[in-house]
Design brief:
single chain; 93 residues; alpha+beta; Arc Repressor Mutant, subunit A; 3 strands; 13% strand; globular; WH_DNA-bd_sf; ArsR family transcriptional regulator; WH-like_DNA-bd_sf
Length: 93
């Protein structure tokens, strides 16, 4: 599925790719945080998040610090983290 996800992301508009990279770099963020970090308009970020949610690479969750906002995070794991074969602990065994 990781291969099709990369293909799906490459078909998205540049704003959605930027939002994905912001979430990839910073971890889970609110929409307001993404707007500040990416310097995109709130409307553009909403549209980008909608596109990313449609292809199942971003998930929306409750932000417990402020229930009026949502927390967005990437749903996919990198292949290195998923199998653990390239981790330093696996190399020592």
């Amino acid at each position: 599925m990781a291969e099709s996800t990369a293909e799906d992301i490459s078909d998205l508009p540049p704003s959605a790719k930027l939002v994905f990279k912001v979430l990839e770099y910073n971890g889970p963020m609110t929409q307001k945080g993404i707007v500040q970090e990416s310097m995109l308009s709130a409307r553009t970020v909403r549209y980008a998040l909608e596109r990313l949610e449609n292809i199942d690479v971003v998930v929306e969750d409750v932000y417990f610090a402020d229930a009026r906002q949502n927390l967005y995070e990437i749903t996919t794991e990198s292949p290195v983290e998923a199998d653990g074969a390239d981790s330093p602990a696996a190399a020592d065994d």
